Amino acid sequence: MSEQLAQLVRKNVRELIPYQSARRLGGNGDVWLNANEYPTAIPFSLTQQTLNRYPECQPVEVITRYAQYAGLTPEQVLVSRGADEAIELLIRAYCEPGQDTVLYCPPTYGMYSVSAETYGVGTRTQRLTTQWQLDLPAIEQQLDSVKIVYLCSPNNPTGNLLNAEDIRRILTLTRGKALVVVDEAYIEFCPEASVVSWMNEFPHLVVLRTLSKAFALAGLRCGFTLAQPEVIQTLLKVIAPYPLSTPVADIASQALSEQGLRLMRERVAELNTIRDTFIPRFNALACVEHAFPSQTNYFLIRCYDSPTVFKNLWEQGIILRDQNKNPLLGGCLRISIGTEKEMECLYQALAQFGPKGERQ
User: Fold this and answer.
1) Is 180 helix (H, G, I), strand (E, B) or coil?
2) Based on C-alpha coordinates, what's the Rg of the chain?
3) What are phi and psi of 288, to 5 degrees?
4) What are the Cα distances from residue 9, in Å, to 14, 88, 113, 287?
5) What is the pLDDT of residues 156-206, one digit of tens each?
6) How confident is the model over 118-135, as pLDDT tens digits?
7) 299 and which of 71, 75, 142, 294 could share a cystine (Cβ 3.0–4.6 Å)?
8) Which among 52, 49, 83, 77 is positioned nearest to 65, based on CA atoms?
9) In the beta sheet, which residues pair with residue 134?
């Protein structure tokens, strides 16, 4: 019977390798530094009690506040169940299965490929350079039949910004041919690098945002698509009737209030300070070959014998994200910025390892 049911599944889904989120990978730990979350819970109180009614498809207050925050008009904003839903909406609305392709540049966020493969849309990849930047000549050779280019800046998992002029070049090459989607999930940690202001110059530019990171609301599942009104109207044709529940819209609106934005910026400053304090300290550890600079709430370390280090930390209840399977990231572990206490705990644990991964 199970074999019969399996044959009913679309072939590309049967063969699909699902995205391995931090929660799917599991672990039993006391120090969770693997999902790029804010390390402590932020209290909110629900103010909307009309749960007997369906919510608005696009809650006006949420849209209006985010538009004001982003420097756009409400007509240029769409809210969805996290930026992950927006990635899929763009593929569903703009890509013909079996005909169009999307292009992305690993090592980067894994959901671009998973979403495309789920809907039968082809994928093309062009690895980043060894400096984790766009390989423009190689990308230019791959743009035929590409309908969407996904760029992540700051990039996950490398933590660096893509060169602005390289993004501009991609936008120029794809004008009238494809959408360029810049994923700015971590832009609050370096807001001066946002490309949102380029939308008038490049109407095919789409920017993705989220409340999961700097806003400390990963559990809320609330993301935003910023684009020209024509793109937003197209996505509204394929989005679910009620993408945001009433409690989600309620809390999102509070997070985007004047006070909510002030608190978010305070959290960003706090995490950036912790990050910039600990990266040099990690660089000096015997087991760390290099701790990389970052513009986000996480950073990479390249370890000697990283599998042993990762396993030992896991067994101690310190959960990091192993990046060894990603191209260009051999020996790398990704560390989310936790509290000072959590980061100190990790530092002391890593200090126990020598250059060969052995415990000292």
Assistant:
1) strand
2) 21
3) -100, 115
4) 6, 19, 19, 46
5) 999 999 999 999 999 999 999 999 999 999 999 999 999 999 999 999 999
6) 999 999 999 999 999 999
7) 294
8) 77
9) none
